Amino acid sequence: MSNQDLLTRELKSIKGESIILKNIISDLNYSGILDSTQSYDQFVTGFFSSQNLGFPDLAPVAGYITRGLHLENNHLGIDIAARNQDDVRAPADGRVMFSGTSEDLGNTIIINHPGGFITVFGHNDTNLVNAGEELQKGQVVARVGETGKSQGPHLHFEIWKNNQVLDPREIIPIYKEKDVSIRQTR
Ligand SMILES: [Zn+2]
Question: Which member of 10, 73, 142, 184 has the greatest number of CB atoms within 10 A?
Fold first, then answer.
């Protein structure tokens, strides 16, 4: 079995049949760093750690997923139920692209991360950072709220890569475990 076959099998076992994740890996051309001296554990660990400062794998809030992606309804992210005023954290290093208000998402922050990732945070009670600010992974950027079109406090959270919507549940492992949304085919 080739390294690539083993890698593919490994990714399937840890992430399920994640086409999106495989696309990310091929986009980042990470297969290029695979060689015979490197174990797959090392490869996978490396992929999800410091080699990718822009990879948005830190949960921005603790909470349960109450709604998933519904592309047909223009719901391009997940909703995470959380308490009013809970901290919203940057899921990776990056720079604030937008800190302002939109009609649907209320107080909104958009962060640009190295590697082509963009994350969106909606319904914030308060935005705590300004456009242009450099962020470190884990830095508090907002407080949870229910501004915009929202029923109860929650974070609306989107992850994009190269203008493609990703499912945060595929990127942030804890959200797969804390998912109580109704599954829909998409
Ligand atoms: Zn939402």
Answer: 142
